[in-house]
Amino acid sequence: MACPHAPWPGIAGPYLLACAIFGLSPASAEAAGLADQIHALARDNGFPAEGLERLGAEPARSAEGTIKDRLQTLLQGYNYILAESRPGNIERLVITGTARSGKPQSSTISTLRIGAHHQVEAILVGPNGVTQTVSVLVDTGASTVVLPTSMITPLGFDAEGLSAGISQTASGQVHTKIGVLPSVTVGPASAENVPVSFIADKRLNGAMLLGMSFLNRFRLTIDDERNEIVLLAK
């Protein structure tokens, strides 16, 4: 985005430099924070950015390189989901929260494409300590891991002890039973105490979902062209 002449005499150099570094519009070059900076970057490159409110009042940052490089620099210290239809073509950005301190570890996991979805193998550990390996669809629209009610007993849950809930699906509201899986592992990436929703088998039509209760523990990149996901853990 090009910057016009500086609005105040004597500060043209710093003003234009701010525009060049941060990619801000002239009106917001001085006042904009990190959220405004990322919003402008998303708007100018045609992809939605969700969760900007989680950035708080952080100031804008310096970032250079490709759009993906700039986002990775700007979002250091945060967990996020970055979906690409092909390398460099960003389709969606979702900021999920603040990352914990420590050296992040990256896991690249090959996926099987099921239509527009990516399917991966997940190892679930229930309260009884028994592991169950299942195929799950990566679904950033699901708030939790979603499994059929037929898995409640095999995973060691007490059906009567699970909380009752309501979930909104594409076909309307459905009743759910809610619990917590002690562990979920996908490739080398693992998370503990992962909320899970159980829905009647017939409503899922055989599908199981890897939702945000697992995914928001990581920075997630979905690469449609390579058929893989990258999970960057804390």
TrEMBL record:
The keyword Membrane does not apply. It comes from the Bacteria. Keywords: Signal. Gene3D superfamilies: Acid Proteases. Residues 1-31 form the signal peptide. This is Retroviral-like aspartic protease family protein. It comes from Methylococcus capsulatus.
